[in-house]
Design brief:
With about 280 residues, this protein is of the alpha/beta class. The chain has helices spanning about 15-30, 40-50, 70-80, 100-110, 120, 130-140, 170-175, 190-200, 215-225, 245-250, 265-270; strands at about 5-10, 55-60, 60-65, 70, 85-90, 115, 145, 180, 200-205, 230-235. The strands form two sheets. Strands 1-2-5-6-7-8-9-10 form an eight-stranded parallel beta sheet. Helix 7 links the parallel strand 7 (about 145) and strand 8 (about 180).
């Protein structure tokens, strides 16, 4: 059990009308809750308080091909109300006209500090010209890039665009821009760690992995051996997972009886000792 307040670096907010049919139906199919659970502003605030989360990263997501559109204004207004303890991350879909312009508008209007992109959900190659226009805008605005660069559940998702090493070119060409890799690049934690070892501007969150014991164990062992645990952060992926339950499961990895254990101090360091200025 978490014995003190902790930060959650991966939480969503959205209303049912924001999610689209794929997200809604697939959520019910996989976890028994439409759209993976309720994530309105009130539900988010209540969940963070109940779990003992004192700081959180709140994000939106826009996926045109799935009919998902969480307005940046919805995320931005919540962020502005919680500026003292939140990181605000908007989203744009590079496949849609005006994506870079919308990113600039959202950041200048609400002070958002990052942008969430998802090549496998949104259906674009991370090296395409449209994506690079968004990256250049983010670099110009001084915000970080957050990527769902991991496998996806949607039947029409493009896992060929999910491979973490596709971000090596982005990390090289935007050295001054920090990159946060969601879900530790699952199911490719080895490649995610190699990407982080090579590129000091790449970070990763461990969201969704607390329920995937073998992937989490291997990822943490690889991160320890690659000396990059200082760039790992905890995330629950609320509302798919309850933050306190995810934190419990994350801490429990240190109790796993293995020839090469995960030191408890490493797990606690990731959960409790990651200040926001790591990315800001």
């Amino acid at each position: 059990m978490p014995d003190r307040p902790f930060a959650d670096w991966h939480t969503h907010v959205y209303l049912p009308e924001h999610t689209g049919p794929v997200w809604t139906d697939r959520g019910a199919e996989l976890v028994g809750r439409p759209a993976f659970g309720l994530a309105g502003l009130d539900e988010h605030a209540q969940a963070m308080e109940a779990a003992g989360v004192d700081r959180f990263l709140v994000l939106g997501l826009q996926v045109a091909r799935m009919g998902m559109h969480v307005p940046n204004d919805y995320v931005g207004e919540y962020f502005e109300a919680n500026r003292d303890r939140a990181i605000g991350v908007g989203s744009v879909d590079p496949t849609q006209p005006g994506a870079a312009a919308e990113l600039r508008r959202a950041v200048e209007t609400h002070g958002l500090q990052g942008v969430k992109l998802s090549p496998p959900y949104q259906g674009f190659h991370p090296h395409c010209a449209e994506a690079f226009e968004v990256y250049r805008t983010a670099a110009d605005l001084g915000i970080f890039l957050m990527f769902h660069q991991a496998s996806v559940f949607a039947p029409d998702g493009c896992n060929e665009f999910a491979y973490p090493m596709l971000l090596d070119k982005v990390a090289r060409e935007f050295r001054g821009t920090k990159i946060l890799l969601a879900h530790f690049g699952k199911p490719w934690p080895n490649e995610a760690v190699e990407l982080m070892m090579k590129n000091p501007n790449v970070y990763a969150d461990v969201s969704t992995l607390p329920v995937k014991t073998w992937q989490l164990y291997n990822g943490l062992r690889l991160a320890i051996e690659g000396h990059v645990t200082d760039r790992l952060v905890f995330g629950s992926d609320f509302p798919s997972f309850d933050p306190r339950e995810a934190a419990d499961q994350f801490l429990a990895i240190a109790d796993l009886e293995m020839p090469l254990p995960i030191p408890r101090e490493t797990v606690e360091d990731i959960l409790y000792h990651r200040p926001f200025d790591l990315l800001l």
